[in-house]
């Protein structure tokens, strides 16, 4: 989209549209993840994969990069039609706490708008 890199497949340059189609065929929920990634980057955050922690993304504070700061939140992407049990959400909150981050659910609606819901453990 910003024309900063050229991606080639079999020596032929892929358009942004073809690249998204290629990725969507190989990655579950690619479009929803792409919308969230793009939104976070446009807001000035450094976004990295959260795969090894069981999340979609790790988010670093604005202006910071890995090595300069610890990630401040982890993101799991959902669509408005996804259903999650309290047990699943509790597991994600507990895991995010173990890595000293805040768990955020990014919900992409039918109009491709993103709503962010931060869920934290409350200890009395």
UniProtKB/TrEMBL annotation:
**SUPFAM superfamilies in UniProt:** tRNA-intron endonuclease catalytic domain-like
GO cellular component, alphabetical, reads: cytoplasm
Q: Which Gene3D superfamilies match?
A: 3.40.1350.150
UniProt-listed Pfam families: tRNA_int_endo (PF01974)
Citing just one GO molecular function, the answer is: tRNA-intron lyase activity
Give start and end of each tRNA intron endonuclease catalytic domain: 30-116
**Cited CDD domains:** tRNA-intron_lyase_C
InterPro entries given for it?
Answer: tRNA_intron_Endo_cat-like_sf, tRNA_intron_Endonuc_cat-like, tRNA_splic
Write the record's keywords in alphabetical order, separated by commas.
Lyase
GO BP, one annotated term: tRNA splicing, via endonucleolytic cleavage and ligation
Q: Which domain of life is it from?
A: Archaea
Q: Has the keyword Lyase been applied to this entry? A: yes
Question: What is the protein name for this chain?
Answer: tRNA-intron lyase
Recall the taxonomic lineage recorded for the source organism: Archaea, Candidatus Iainarchaeota, Candidatus Iainarchaeia, Candidatus Iainarchaeales, Candidatus Iainarchaeaceae
* Gene field: endA
